[in-house]
Amino acid sequence: MSEIKLTESAPTEDNGEEKDWAAAKAHFDNLKTKIPRPPKPRYAVTIAVSSRTLFNMVKERKVYEDEGLEKYVAYQMEHESEPLMPGVAFPFVQALMNVNSRLRQLYPDSEELFDIVLMTNNHAQVGVRLINSINHYDLTIERFCMTGGESPIGYLKAYMTNLYLSKNSDKVMEAIEEGIAAATMFAVDTDNELSKTQLRVAFDGDAVLFSDESEIIVKQHGLDTFFDHEKEFVNKPLAQGPLKCFLEALGKLQRKFIAKNERLNCPIRTFLVTARSAASCGARVLKTLRSWGLEIDEALFLAGAPKGPLLEKIKPHIFFDDQMFHIEGAQQMGTISAHVPYGIGQKYHKGKLIEQPPKKE
Ligand SMILES: [Mg+2]
């Protein structure tokens, strides 16, 4: 479980594909529209969100579960002019849009932007309500994947997805196994006022940005062995975890602001929120990030203290963690959290080994 595949790097220039894109660009330029053209997946930071994370569809889902597909589609069509309520990933997506508008001001011709793809296995007729809702909130989401219940993995790869957010943990797990950064989101009641001008993203360290190799030692041999191990290997970078590539993508966009002297006014801020303690096992984490050439704006070492109260102060648009008890603690204090189902932590709850459900075929 600790081994994950590396995300495939951009394919080498393919003439056929290049010609297709050039033709698409020429066609779009001819249309004389003010709507920005979606960027090429190769340059974009692509975020795939499911319709149930972008919008709150709890009521609609209930109609589907209680009354079946036909009634559900009819309900959605009847309410098609009524915008869906924002869902758990909505503030995050809105913050991405804000970063895009800042990028477009600084680099009008660049395709290095966030691109949002809506993944849905909804019936095509429900698409009208989704489109109306997207337009109602003035979101720029031009790419839709109507997967018709099939696995989204093929589409995620085709779009070179940098992050996939869903409510379905089986699909998320499948994506992580294929080397795609992904996380499961849950509904959260929050009155937290989130920044309108800055995208704030918080990451756990072990088994999120990094592999679970150190976590395995904590779980199997205890903290003292772990401290000794981290001291011994302080100069050996940790292997990468499932969300490393997403941090890298954020860093790529951050550097575009820094290049224009906007470091202090950068609309992206990243946080490492780890249960590690700084003095006894923090150095390896910082040295690993340095060896990757990645910066994190703020690193918080909690030495086992709960993460909720600190996250309440940080107010991230999204917080990633591999351990459910950290997610639950964060959610109780109103933080929008996303679970990364990866690594040895999935086999434990609050330090105790738990029974694994049988793996689905
Ligand atoms: Mg962790």
Automatic annotation (TrEMBL):
Where is it found, in Gene Ontology cellular component terms?
A: cytosol
Biological source species: Gymnodraco acuticeps
UniProt-recorded name of the protein? Cytosolic 5'-nucleotidase 1A-like
Top-level taxon in the UniProt lineage: Eukaryota
MF terms from GO for this chain are:
5'-nucleotidase activity; magnesium ion binding; nucleotide binding
InterPro entries (alphabetical): 5-nucleotidase (IPR010394)
State one Pfam family annotation: 5-nucleotidase
One BP term from GO: nucleotide metabolic process
